[in-house]
Design brief:
Helix content is 35%, strand content 22%. By secondary structure, it is of the alpha/beta class. It has a single domain, classed as TIM Barrel (Alpha-Beta Barrel), CATH 3.20.20. It has an eight-stranded mixed β-sheet with strand order 3-2-1-8-7-6-5-4. Helix 2 packs across helix 3, helix 4 packs parallel to helix 5 and helix 5 packs parallel to helix 7. The chain is globular.
Length: 197
């Protein structure tokens, strides 16, 4: 299993670095597909084999929920992913476009990730299941992560799984990164790469 470290840069970008060789595996620019990714915004990146395209939005009321998860929201999301992937290919023909969904992304669970992957096999996925946990899921976080991992173990386009600690929250103690990584093992095995945040 290949292990990566996530390194947050001062410009807001994130480097995924091989833990053994210190070679850059991929870079996530600071922007999200919702704000726009084009060849100009990618031009500031150093050469990298993978560009990780962030997807994240604020979903805090009924209107924003509908805008994200309705059919129109899905169609807009798929258009933005395609445009961003095209920008990656025009920036550097050999660079792989990898989607990295976060909080509030259309891809917010294992089923939506599988559905997207089957429809868009040319876009890799780097999945951070802890980002999918809502406050109401915190009590049963271990169960949710295990279910996400089982679903994601079927995802053929997943190229990395991100493991991060879950901080303590009121009555719920911290769940350390080692425990999270263990819960995500079926998905990590499928991806062959685990990135430790």
């Amino acid at each position: 299993m290949r292990r990566l470290r996530l390194i947050e840069e001062s410009d807001g970008s994130t480097r995924f670095v091989d833990a053994e060789t210190d070679m850059v595996w991929g870079i996530a620019p600071a922007t999200t597909i919702e704000r726009g990714v084009d060849a100009g915004s990618l031009g500031v990146l150093p050469p990298t084999p993978r560009v990780l395209l962030r997807s994240s939005r604020s979903v805090d009321d009924a209107a924003s929920s509908f805008a994200t998860w309705s059919s129109a929201g899905w169609a807009l999301f798929e258009t933005r992913v395609s445009e961003a992937a095209d920008s990656v290919r025009s920036w550097h023909a050999d660079a792989e476009a990898v989607l990295w969904p976060g909080v509030g992304s259309v891809l917010s669970d294992g089923v939506s990730a599988l559905s997207f992957a089957r429809k868009h096999p040319s876009v890799g996925l780097a999945i951070d299941p802890v980002a999918w946990l809502t406050p109401s899921m915190r009590r049963d976080a271990e169960d949710h992560l295990a279910r996400f991992a089982q679903a994601l173990s079927l995802c053929e386009t997943m190229v990395a799984i991100v493991a991060r600690a879950i901080p303590a929250d009121g009555a719920w103690p911290e769940i350390g990164v080692e425990s999270v990584e263990s819960l995500l093992e079926p998905a990590a095995t499928r991806a062959g790469v685990v990135a430790i945040a």
